[in-house]
Design brief:
The protein is an alpha/beta fold. Helix content is about 35%, strand content about 20%. The strands form 8 sheets. Strands 15-16-14-17-18-13-19 form a 7-stranded parallel beta sheet, sandwiched between helices. A 6-stranded mixed beta sheet has the order 5-2-1-4-3-6. Strands 20-30-29-21-28-27 form a 6-stranded parallel beta sheet, with helices on both faces. The structure holds adenosine-5'-diphosphate (ADP) and zinc ion.
Length: about 850
């Protein structure tokens, strides 16, 4: 028989896949979609089989060490999807595959050693000849430590790797002695995958294909020739129902190769058996009684349901103001998917901040809903994953990683608040869950619903160009008109407190609200890390003439810098626009605003919610609960609290410094600010009374603030999209960006590496056809130094796939770049945040 070769993707930062040969006995398990243990350099790694029956292109192909799964863990659709992700995001296929699986899948296995027949023989003869040579004369040197190991392993059916090490006094990172014994074929290493704790669906088993007596007779005849097979038969004869779950085989000392040999002899068969199902009681659920859908809801649903029914790929952008009943549409769409026998995934930006979606789906679909989130233990995540895969939960609700849920026969993916940045993963693989949702739906013939009050420019452009269908819900359902937004012009109303945070208008509004026994939310634009220079007389702040993004102020050398192209200028001492002499450098952060609140309202209870106060697990829940239950008067926080939360007791929402958002060194600064202001306005007036919203800004006339105030998304889109189109090759969605950050402890090294990279990319770009991509930078990253690590970035901007192609080419020639080994590169395709 000819050897089988497979392609394996390993979860290491490498490009491409690797060819291995499959030893006899493993052919039926080392199949596409399963995990294999393979030698990789001097290590052993768990890789994923992504193709089989390949022809190797090199001569010395190594053998797979072990097949780790009894059945594939990755479905064919996922193989295709992860391949696309790896190519698109210029990242390792194996790392992407690993990211799609629950982390518990690896935890569920333990490594063991067992003696081979040769090992037992070697031990015998070593013992016999102990007085003389201390080992077989022709065999390996059996040092004292190796003897000890071999004795340990021969003593029992199997010994865990850890136990063997401890008993033989072998340190954790030293495999020399174990490897030596394995090379000689005296011991074998194997992995036991524990069965999941959740019982459900089907279980792969091995069972006798013949009667017990016959098996016993066979066992006797095999005893001498094939002792392992004899043992396996004995184990099966004594097992309940003559059946052993495949996942427990290792624990019974039976290897897969042995089973295969017995299957060939017709004594044993592989099968599946039903295991007890999870309760799927349907009582207590049904779509919430909201009466009939509005005509707009019905037509939105019609678009979605029609495609779901026809199993046709499509994307529907559901643009609806806060409170317009988008959730109802999601729910009805899920229902339509279930009715046609298909599953659904509902993505939310952050599960702990969107409890209503979980409650709603649970209420509407009962125990058919699985909720996946990081609060689950590894075992729970693994068990849930298995159960989803077996079809027990046709509805899955979760954050970005839930886009990979193995829902069989997927018909629908809902992405709620599609514009949210949390859908982009901040570490490798840096995928965007919304974009993955669209790709996955395309591969599986499913429908995507992108819901939001403030579509991302990318999605809205797609809708306008007809790539997506657009459904609009322009009216709020039950809470009347959206609250009016008052904009305070800080240039004419200077701050009244020592921290420079409150205008008299905002101060008085807070006071009145407190007096009316209502609650207040004060927003600060996220992270004030990037400082800027702004004139307090006219609100002007400087932008980069090349890049049209705000310049960042550096107090150490009082310069202003562009974090895209790297230009640096002296900070002005008077306003370049109005010659005013009063400039401010950034805006007060959360701690200083908290101080101002305590100074102005000493009698109010105040809570601050930002990354500092919420690092402890569960603390944001506590803060929100206290607020929801009325124990806190004023909640002060970053964007974190702007997401989908309903607080009926809120009478006032204040945005302390809208300009911080506008001055972020990011081409999306305007879009983000528009989104924040719109979300914020949606937070009040959910009860009977109309709420009040006060926004402070030195730039009240800025189109972003003026249009957000009137909740005019359409005009904002037109204006913003033309701003983006105008600069050079344009910013996304007209072009694509790829960011590369060089990091290291030595600043000079990092800067030089970034410069060399930029140069290399520039030369590469020159060889490309028009419109060729442009290289911006190098420039210090906005967070130039973090925990002792310096960061410099290079941005590549190009039309269509040119930026990615250029970076991919450079990465492939990484060696030619001769970067110091202490500098690492991180690549981000379609970066959303500043790296
Ligand atoms: P969104 O998700 O767009 O912010 P929701 O789905 O939360 O809006 O809907 C706002 C409110 O309107 C909720 O209280 C919801 O129960 C109610 N609602 C939704 N659809 C209808 C309807 N067709 N008839 C009556 N009430 C509805
Ligand atoms: Zn610039």
């Amino acid at each position: 028989m000819s050897t089988t070769f497979i392609e394996v993707a390993v979860p290491l930062p490498v490009t491409g896949t690797f060819t291995y040969s499959v030893p006899e006995g493993l052919e039926d398990r080392a199949v596409v979609g399963s995990r294999v243990l393979v030698p990789f350099g001097r290590r052993k790694v768990t890789g994923f089989v992504v193709a089989a029956g390949v022809t190797p292109s090199v001569d010395d192909v190594k053998d797979v060490i072990e097949a780790l799964d009894v059945a594939p863990v990755v479905d064919p659709h996922m193989i295709e999807l992860t391949k696309w992700i790896a190519d698109y995001y210029l990242t390792s296929w194996g790392e992407v595959l690993r990211a799609t699986l629950p982390p518990g899948i690896n935890m569920e296995s333990r490594r063991f050693l067992r003696a081979t027949d040769e090992g037992r023989e070697a031990l015998e003869s070593a013992r016999r000849g102990a007085g003389a040579s201390g080992g077989r004369s022709d065999g390996p040197e059996l040092t004292e430590r190796r003897m000890k190991l071999l004795e340990l392993v021969c003593d029992r059916e199997r010994v865990s790797l850890g136990h063997a090490r401890r008993e033989a006094g072998i340190p954790r990172n030293n495999r020399r002695d174990i490897d030596a014994l394995m090379r000689e074929g005296l011991v074998e290493e194997f992995e036991v995958v524990h069965p999941p704790k959740v019982e459900g669906g089907k279980q792969a088993v091995v069972r006798l294909a013949v009667a017990g007596e016959e098996a016993l007779a066979e066992r006797e005849s095999l005893e001498r020739r094939a002792p392992k097979q004899a043992e396996a038969l004995a184990a099966l004869v004594t097992a309940p129902d003559h059946t052993i779950p495949v996942a427990e085989l290792g624990g019974s000392g039976v290897s897969s190769a042995t089973v295969t040999a017995l299957v060939k002899k017709g004594l044993v068969e592989r099968a599946e058996r039903a295991s007890p199902k999870l309760s799927t009681g349907h009582e207590g659920w049904g779509l919430r009684d909201e009466g009939a859908m509005t005509p707009e809801q019905a037509s939105a649903l019609g678009l979605v349901a029609g495609k779901v029914g026809a199993a046709e790929f499509g994307v529907v952008l559901l643009h609806g103001v806060t409170g317009s009943g988008k959730t109802r549409v999601y729910s009805e769409a899920v229902s339509a998917a279930l009715d046609s026998g298909r599953g659904a995934i509902v993505l939310v930006p952050e599960i702990s901040l969107t409890p209503q979606m979980v409650q709603r789906m649970r209420k509407d679909f009962g125990e058919r809903v699985a909720v996946v989130h990081s609060g689950l233990t590894m075992t729970e995540r693994y068990d849930t994953w298995r159960a989803i895969r077996e079809g027990m939960f046709p509805v899955v609700v979760g954050p970005r990683s839930a886009v990979f849920s193995p829902v069989p026969n997927l018909g629908l993916i809902v992405v709620d608040e599609e514009h949210e940045q949390t859908y982009k993963q901040g570490e490798s693989p840096r995928y965007h869950a919304r974009d993955i949702a669209v790709m996955r739906a395309k591969l599986e013939g499913a429908v995507v619903v992108l819901g939001t009050a403030t579509p991302s420019l990318e999605s809205y452009l797609n809708a306008r160009e007809g790539k997506y269908d657009l459904a609009e819900l322009p009216e709020r359902i039950d809470s009347g008109p959206l609250p009016e937004v008052e904009v305070v012009d800080m240039c004419s109303e200077p701050p009244v407190d020592s921290e420079g945070a409150f205008s008299a208008t905002l101060r008085d509004a807070v006071r009145e609200t407190l007096d009316a026994n209502k609650q207040i939310i004060l927003f600060l634009n996220r992270r004030g890390f990037a400082s800027f220079v702004q004139c307090v007389s006219c609100g002007h702040s400087e932008k980069c003439p090349n890049c049209n993004v705000s310049l960042t102020y550096h107090s150490t050398d009082s310069t202003m810098r562009c974090h895209y192209c790297g230009i640096s200028t002296k900070a002005p001492d008077k306003c370049p626009a109005c010659e005013g002499m009063n400039l401010r450098y950034g805006a007060p952060g959360t701690q200083r605003v908290e101080k101002a609140v305590r100074e102005l309202f000493p009698d109010a209870t105040v809570e601050r919610m930002d990354v500092d106060t919420t690092t402890r697990h569960g603390s944001h829940w506590r803060i929100l609960k206290d607020f929801a239950e009325g124990r806190t008067d004023i909640l002060l926080g970053t964007q974190m609290i702007a997401k989908g939360l309903d607080f009926p007791g809120v009478g006032l929402v204040g945005v302390v410094a809208a300009d911080v958002g506008l001055n972020l060194p990011d081409f999306r600064a305007g879009e983000r600010t528009f989104q924040l202001l719109t979300q914020v306005a949606g937070r009040t007036g959910r009860g009977d009374e109309r709420g009040r919203v006060v926004v402070q800004s030195y730039l009240p006339e800025h189109y972003t603030i003026a249009l957000a105030r009137e909740q005019q998304f359409g005009p904002f889109f037109e204006r913003e999209i033309s701003e983006r189109e105008g600069i050079g090759l344009g910013y996304p969605p007209f072009s694509r960006l790829v960011g590369i950050v060089a990091r290291g402890r030595d600043e000079d090294q990092v800067r030089e590496a970034a410069a060399r990279l930029a140069d290399f990319l520039d030369k590469g770009a020159e060889k490309m056809g028009d419109p060729r991509p442009e290289v911006l930078g190098p420039a210090p990253a906005p967070i130039g130094k973090l925990r002792g690590i310096h960061r410099w970035q290079v941005l590549v901007r190009g039309r269509a796939g040119t930026a990615r192609a250029l970076v991919a080419g450079a990465l492939a020639q990484r060696k030619a770049l001769k970067l110091p080994s202490a500098v690492t590169l991180a690549v981000d395709v379609d970066p959303l945040d500043l790296l």
